[in-house]
């Protein structure tokens, strides 16, 4: 069963003082292109997270976000770093003495000092416990599994679309047959009429038959029809395969189908056949567009 590269998944992990949210989405891409945005406290696990996600999803443009929501009533104020504040105060007083600048009013000290960098320690930067990381990891896997399920559902829709398009091309290929014999007779009539009426010359009928056979053989599309039919069947059987790389393989088969349809069009030499070939190309173009989304 094929999978789409388009997907979305979300999961949460509940802890006593916080809720951890994991969101992941993917679009089609030739390779794995993973972008991450996560809370600073989880950054040390980023390499492991990236490796695990890439192994499961294989391919696609993937965006992963992990963020924290503090629960109401469980907010913990960021600790104030007293040593940093004291050092800032000492520096300000020293600069005031050296440059002869007035010191701030007593009531303005806190307002001034608390605006300076690094006077508070972010709670998010605290060490992550094993219990918390276990909850984050479980939420990550749940979100990724939701995305895979989404991809599978999209894959079913793609497979239905592909089968419909392949069946349409198969029916169009059969529709070519009646015009093949008609085309041969028209070629014969056109050449004979040109010789008899337009040029008004005598000709060797045996030689004409030989030339007609040569000309008709060059326009014969039996091989192209056979190869196109094989490609159509191979496309269907490939969709039913399991494992990775199915999308790329389907893309290669679609290219081969295009070559045979183009050759069929160049050899058709018949208005109705050319119309059928145009319809084949339209069906194939829709397949090529959607194959880009297949994993």
What does this entry show, briefly?
Helix content is 61%, strand content 12%.
Structural features, described:
By secondary structure, the chain is α+β, with helices and mostly antiparallel strands. 61% of the residues lie in helices and 12% in strands. It is built from 8 helices and 4 strands; from the N terminus they run βββαβααααααα. Helix 1 (46-57) packs parallel to helix 4 (130-198), helix 6 packs antiparallel against helix 7 (246-268) and helix 7 (246-268) packs antiparallel against helix 8. The model has no long low-confidence stretch (mean pLDDT 85).
The proportion of strand residues reads: 5-15%
Mean pLDDT across all amino acids: 85
> Structural class, from secondary structure content?
alpha+beta
Ranges where pLDDT stays below 50 over 5 or more residues in a row are none
- Shape, please? elongated
Number of strands: 4
Main beta sheet: 4 strands, mixed
SSE topology string: EEEHEHHHHHHH
Order of neighbouring strands in the sheet with most strands: 1-2-4-3
Query: How far apart lie the N and C ends?
Result: 10 Å
**What's the total helix number?**
8
Number of domains: 3
Q: How helical, in percent, are the residues?
A: 55-70%
Give the C-alpha Rg.
36 Å
Descriptive terms for the model:
295 residues; alpha+beta; Ribosomal Protein S5, domain 2; 3 domains; 4-stranded mixed sheet; 4 strands; 61% helix; 12% strand
SSE layout and pairings?
Layout: E1 7-14, E2 18-27, E3 32-38, H1 46-57, E4 60-70, H2 82-99, H3 109-113, H4 130-198, H5 205-218, H6 222-239, H7 246-268, H8 271-291
Parallel strand pairs: 3-4
Antiparallel strand pairs: 1-2, 2-4
């Amino acid at each position: 069963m094929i999978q789409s590269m388009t997907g979305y998944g979300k999961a949460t992990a509940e802890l006593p003082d916080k809720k951890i949210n994991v969101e992941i989405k993917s679009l089609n891409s030739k390779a794995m292109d993973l972008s991450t945005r996560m809370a600073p406290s989880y950054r040390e696990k980023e390499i492991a997270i990236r490796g695990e996600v890439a192994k499961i999803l294989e391919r696609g443009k993937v965006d992963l976000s992990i963020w924290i929501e503090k629960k109401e009533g469980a907010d913990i104020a960021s600790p104030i770093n007293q040593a940093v504040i004291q050092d800032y105060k000492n520096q300000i007083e020293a600069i005031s003495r050296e440059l002869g600048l007035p010191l701030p009013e007593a009531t303005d000290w806190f307002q001034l000092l608390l605006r300076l960098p690094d006077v508070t320690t972010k709670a998010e930067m605290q060490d992550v416990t094993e219990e918390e990381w276990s909850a984050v990891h479980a939420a990550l896997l749940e979100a990724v599994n939701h995305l895979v399920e989404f991809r599978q559902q999209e894959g079913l829709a793609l497979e239905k679309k592909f089968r419909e398009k392949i069946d349409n091309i198969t029916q169009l290929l059969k529709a070519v047959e009646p015009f093949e014999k008609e085309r041969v007779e028209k070629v014969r009539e056109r050449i004979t009429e040109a010789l008899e009426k337009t040029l008004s010359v005598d000709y060797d009928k045996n030689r004409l038959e030989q030339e007609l056979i040569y000309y008709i053989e060059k326009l014969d599309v039996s091989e192209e029809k056979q190869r196109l039919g094989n490609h159509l069947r191979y496309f269907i059987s490939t969709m039913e395969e399991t494992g990775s790389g199915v999308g790329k393989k389907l893309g290669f088969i679609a290219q081969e189908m295009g070559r045979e349809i183009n050759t069929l069009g160049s050899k058709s030499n018949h208005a109705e056949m050319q119309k059928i070939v145009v319809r084949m190309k339209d069906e194939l173009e829709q397949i090529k567009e959607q194959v880009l989304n297949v994993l």
